[in-house]
Amino acid sequence: MLYHLLYPLTKTFSGFNVFKYLTFRSAGAVITALLVSFLLAPGLIRRLRALNVGQQVRDDGPQTHLTKQGTPTMGGLMMIAAIALSVLLWSDLTNKYVWVVLFATLSFGGIGLWDDYLKVVKRRSTGLRAAEKFGLQIAASLVIGVFLYFFSGDPGAAHLSVPFVKRMIIDLGWFAIPFTALVIVGSSNAVNLTDGLDGLAAGLVGIAAMANAVIVYVGGNRILADYLKIQYIPGSGELVVFCGALLGASLGFLWYNAHPAEVFMGDVGSLSLGGALGALAVVTKHELILIITGGISSTYAFFYNLAIINASYLLARREAFYTAALCGIVYGAILDFHYYGKLTGFGLQPDLADSFGII
Questions:
Q1: Domain that holds residue 248
Q2: Is residue 15 exposed (0-12), middle (13-18) or buried (19+ Cβ within 10 Å)?
Q3: pLDDT tens string 130-140
């Protein structure tokens, strides 16, 4: 909005020329999202407490988790508001990719909001059924995939870049549409699975936002993309502003989510953030790099789903039930470090969250 209002006035006042620079507008997006988070958080936390929208903790988990009982959840609402307001304020709103990533953020946030509503308001412990949640996520992702494949005007919309291999591009053809859904849904649920420690998910998303900002900026700059031999996506550089908003919102939320947490982001936050990271990856054609920028979230999701698939396979073959159970326990012990730490005394929760952030 500011870009459209002030940049045309450059001839009247040359100082407005700064609005054409992505670096300036991305910095503005960081600061705006951070300030919006700080302004919204106190009132939102009070409101959630007044409505008794608190975290429900299972009594069969680590005893230290019982202290989280009743802590306000659905704090991801302020993150979505901060991101949306900041993006609308600082982005070039004629850029189609801005709307694609914003759609992913809002649609997955809406799914998470519905899930949280069923859990904390309607007291349905499972929230949305798995089929309902995945069905809605896949539908939203397919909308993005269809748009990018048929309507984006990008001749490389069906291409997949292979990291660390210069000029190696795989043409996925029509399979790019379901592949887009796979990436976005996988990314969204990876962040959702990671959201277990105070400050963990928000901190990792902030780090991923910075990494994506670099990737987006290089991929959207013809000179840099050609020099580094990576795929150039015209117009994708504008998403640096979105990455800035994502970073600012994550830092603002982290202030209230760091141990001991005053509020949790809930599914409305984790699903929307993961959806945003997935959408950034498919737009910039660096889906495979998402495994690296996703860090702990990607590793967590991989082993979690590997455990489920392996256990399900063993059960389907009607082999020993204890073998399947043992498989799930072993994989769970590998990936779920924070539960391991709670149960075995391996460090304190803040130390574990800091360690994950460093990694």
A1: 2-289
A2: exposed
A3: 899 999 999 99
